Amino acid sequence: MDHGGLTPILLLALVAIAGLVITRRLKLPVILAWLITGGLAGSQGFNWLQSDQIALVAEIGVVFLMFSLGLEFSLPRLWAMRARVFGLGSAQVAVTLGCTFVLAWGMGLDPRAAFVCGGAIALSSTAIVLKQLDEQGWINRRHGELSVSVLLFQDLAVIPLLIIIPLLGSDSGGVALAMELSWALLKGTIAFVLLLGLGGYLLPKIFDEVARSRSDELFLLTTLAVALATGFVTLSLGLSMTLGAFLAGMLLGESQYRQQLEADIRPFRDLLMGLFFVSVGMLLDLSLLWAQLPLLLGLLTLVMLAKAMIIWMLATLTGEKTKDALATGICLAQVGEFSFVLIALAMKWQVLEQGLANLLVATGVISMALTPFMVDNCLVLAKRVLGQREQLFGEEPEAPELVTQDHVVLLGYGRVGQTIARFLKREKMPFVAVDLDPIRVRESRTAGEPVVFGDGRRQDILKEVGLHRARLVVVTFDNRRDIFNLLDCIKLMAPHIRTLVRTRDDATLEALELAGADQVIPESLEGSLMLVSQVLYQLGVPLPRILLRIERERRDRYRMLHGFFGGTDPVQGRELLHAVTLSDNAWAVGHFVVELPLNHWRVQLDGLKREGEALEFVPTTRLQRGDVLLLMGTPHQVELAERALLEGP
């Protein structure tokens, strides 16, 4: 064995590990670590490896990526989102590709190269955008839904692009090329029908049999074999391996094994995809990039501004709000990971020259590095660009009337704050809550809760909620530094107000009392109930009544404590409350409560509000336009139930 041949592999692994650690620490996309590793290992760097040495495993990595993507593309899901996916998504890809093609062709590029440039620039980064939207809790916001819809179509558009690019690399003329393209699309349709028919019948049965064996190794091996075998089926038809893998994943996307399939293939996919991006990084010519730095920065600016404006314009034309449309454009302004797949394929078939490919790859790398910042701040940026004082999350529900006299101020409206609020409402005691979680505030206001969005440490917010006229202030969040600053602010504005503070433990109990807290209560579920009892006692509720209510909660095994508005960071698997407003054309309008398949959705109807007032509903209550239904269930269950209520089961 040639031990010297192991040295480049070891160096590659060490550089990749260091790069991954650094990008994680800096909260940058990990794809950058792989690309930079490729740049160092390639012929323009230290020349440790040649791209053809890892070409096969890199291609298999793309196959596994497409299989995983197919698992997320179930046909029912696509059909449910068809209007946005095939409307806005197709328009974005077509317009961006067309504009790029015309501009590149007009600047003297070969039409085939111009087409590849258009396809690469039309795509955005599914992995990075979805990750950032999920971290911000914006997947179900309007701009999040629009972004997901466009990304879904972009990922679908990769399939025909992977078919077309090899044909562009052939020597065929216009008519012959059109014939070849038509034949390729026909073969793709045949492959789709065959896999849909045979695969839809065979694959579930195969995995049923494998699952009965209870062998993790057999299940894993079958997963890898199915992904590769379906890829070779389409390859034998003269199409891309990725097409077959995608179709196989889509067929298994609705099966009960989807989560396990994805978990099994993820380590192989991530590692081999990393090697693919290493091979892409090898295309980078760092010396050429430095020489073309002004051109690179100009192209980067042009690409990101143009994509954002195109998406903004198209989404606005489809009836979306200007702010949501612009925020979607900002989220999707970058070049995506599949763009590198197209560029590498075009290089292989000699459709793109080295210099142009290098420029496109560098543009993609820098745009992806900017993406986390842009997604996290898309709403703020959109608001500044528009110069409007719009709410950040669509039409806000009518604000509930705030009682700011002899009331309780709840600073923080998370799990503990909502528990206190329920008891206060039962005692008919007014309160106002302040919270910084926009989703939680919106959900609460939709349900008619007196919640204000803002930072409770700011004097203007405290003045707005009538701090100086309150009977009691309750601090429910647990950030020690913020609590000390808040106590200073409260005592400066209203030193006569009694203040109760929740804390995680008693380590800072004395310090908090010295800072002005009248009472400090430790955290936990039992601590939440204890805090409730102290709040009610301070407000003059008779002690026997307090003990009776607390004991009743214990007998109910804290059931009520499980329902709360989760906000951006709900506990995974925990039941949450979610307010659903029935629009004019909602499916549920006109139906009786008893007709709602709540057991099928595995959710509970926790309350019903009509015209701003809580309604005592019975099974024969007929739902009306504008009714607000409070559903309780896990996030996934509630999402399915909401979609069914609005669009039909």
Q: Write down how many β-strands occur, each being a DSSP E stretch of 2 or more residues.
A: 10
- Spans of at least 5 consecutive residues whose pLDDT stays below 50 are 389-399, 557-562
Kindly state the percentage of residues in helix: 55-70%
Helix segment tally: 27
In terms of DSSP E residues, the strand content is 5-15%
Lateral arrangement of strands in the main beta sheet: 3-2-1-4-5-6
Mean pLDDT: 78
Specify the overall morphology.
Answer: globular
Largest sheet: 6 strands, parallel
Structural class: alpha/beta
Q: How large is the radius of gyration?
A: 29 Å
For the terminal residues, how far apart are their CA atoms? 62 Å
What does this structure look like?
With 649 residues, the chain is an alpha/beta fold. It is built from 27 helices and ten strands. The protein has a six-stranded parallel beta sheet, sandwiched between helices. The protein has a four-stranded antiparallel beta sheet with strand order 7-10-8-9. About 3% of the residues have low confidence.
